[in-house]
Design a protein that fits this description.
Helices cover about 75% and strands about 0% of the residues. It is mostly helical. Among the domains are: about 1-40, no CATH class; about 45-190, no CATH class; about 190-240; about 390-460.
Length: about 450
């Protein structure tokens, strides 16, 4: 019996949709019992609540939101609405767990429609409601892309609704989410491959910029999914100058383990990025090259690319450990000095190089860290107090006292007074710190005896 079941399963899997329909219709004509049994056991398509009921529920959240307060203690209507929509998304996830796609899709569409219609009535400066709309649209895309058992009936219903919603300019004007991408996805799924490609070709022709690139990527993905590999290669080669398309081809090559061609593609991409002065793309390609060289243990190229990225990448801290690991002890001293010298003109918070400070901490070079930080303002010294105090407690204490006097003389704002009080409290945690703190408070009383607010605040320190 098990073998028969297995053979039957394989037979069904290999049938196309039309073949299966014809097979069932033919068999039904021969056996009336089959028709009855098949009909009884057919899964019921539960329609769920009508769309207008979901719409009514969501609109109620907008017109009568529950009370909700932000971090500053103020009532925020936008946060209240978002809180209710979050609960809706939890409910939608439950629908999906139970394969209730009709309910899930209708509630998502009700959220999207309501936000699109009512958005202008709210001061959504922090993008709270916008995020809820984008979350709903992304969830719709996930359902239609990944849920094979989502009924065609609900996809057709969703497409009709979205065709109406995209006419509302609020979605594009306020960046509420890309409904056109959902509409395109549904149109392709509900059409033949050829019709889907024709639709994409029209979109590509009518678009420009990032939208055009997105449509080209959709076309490439469709060609890959339907195994039209000759057409796929052609479209990729025609658009290989676009970084997103180059990245897609690199992914295909990596899947096949074709590393040599990947390196060639990346080097060609680097030349294009340099010519177009696209720093972000250039760094992205170099990062990919570095990962490949590390995987292949190509030490000379690892060091070359990592040092380049240390100087020109977004975060030198990522590449410093790589350089140290792959440089020989003899090379490392020279490389280290070169890296540090490159940061001499690099100034960030507090007038020092945060990257240089990070390197000194990473290498446990406490004297170098002290020399760097002690020249800065009191805020910067305190930023590195955790690392410096165990090694330079006496120097830290005397330096904090001097810097605090300078700080007090420069401002009379309450927030600065509170900072002074905090530093005085910190000073007391050092050996002999109580005496230094008391001396400072005494000196401030003599020098600023007319600043009562200041003296009232620091007397508690």
């Amino acid at each position: 019996m098990k073998n028969k079941q297995k053979v039957f399963e394989e037979f069904i899997k290999n049938l196309s949709g039309d073949e299966l329909k014809n097979y069932l219709l033919t068999y039904a004509q021969k056996d009336e019992n089959f028709v009855e049994n098949f009909t009884i056991n057919l899964p019921k398509d539960v329609d769920g609540k009508p769309y207008k009921e979901y719409l009514k529920k969501i609109r109620e959240y907008f017109t009568n939101p529950f009370r909700c307060y932000n971090k500053k203690g103020y009532y925020s209507e936008e946060m209240s609405i978002a809180g209710m929509l979050d609960k809706c998304h939890v409910e939608i996830e439950k629908f999906l767990d139970e394969n209730k796609f009709t309910e899930a899709v209708r509630e998502l569409l009700a959220i999207i429609e309501t936000i699109g219609v009512l958005y202008e009535n709210y001061d959504d400066l922090e993008g709270i409601i916008t995020n809820e709309c984008q979350k709903s649209i992304n969830l719709l895309v996930d359902i239609f892309k990944n849920e094979e058992s989502c009924p065609t009936k609900i996809k057709v219903e969703a497409r009709k609704k979205i065709e109406l919603l995209v006419k509302n300019s609020n979605f594009e004007d306020f960046d509420l989410g890309d409904l056109n991408s959902v509409l395109l996805l549904l149109s392709i799924q509900l059409s033949s491959v050829e019709e889907g490609l024709e639709l994409l070709n029209k979109k590509i022709e009518d678009s420009e910029g990032w939208k055009k690139t997105a449509y080209i990527l959709s076309k490439i993905e469709l060609l890959n999914e339907t195994e039209k590999f000759s057409d796929l290669d052609k479209v990729i080669e025609e658009n290989i100058a676009l970084p997103e398309i180059r990245k897609y081809k690199i992914g295909l090559l990596l899947d096949k383990g074709n590393i040599s061609n990947v390196i060639e593609l990346l080097n060609d991409g680097l030349k294009l990025a340099e010519n177009e002065q696209s720093r972000k793309t250039e760094i992205e390609w170099k990062d990919l090259l570095l990962d490949i060289y590390i995987e292949r243990n190509d030490v000379s190229n690892i060091v070359k690319v990592a040092e380049d990225l240390f100087y020109n990448g977004f975060d030198p801290r990522r590449y410093f450990p790589v350089l140290k690991r792959y440089s020989s002890p003899k090379e490392w001293d020279e490389t280290f000095n070169r890296l540090i010298a490159s940061l001499n003109e690099s100034v960030s918070y507090g007038g020092i190089s945060n990257i240089k400070a990070w390197i000194f901490i990473h290498e446990k070079m406490w004297s170098s860290l002290w020399d760097l930080v002690s020249r800065s303002d009191i805020e910067t010294i305190l930023k590195y107090e955790k690392e410096l105090k165990p090694h330079f407690a006496n120097k830290m204490l005397s330096t904090l006292a001097i810097k605090l006097k300078e700080y007090v003389s420069k401002s009379t704002e309450t927030k600065h007074y509170l900072f002074v009080a905090k530093v005085l409290t910190d000073i007391r945690l050092y050996p002999k710190g109580d005496k230094i703190a008391d001396d400072l408070i005494f000196e401030f009383h003599l020098k600023y005896d007319n600043q009562k607010d200041f003296l009232d605040i620091i007397k508690k320190a």
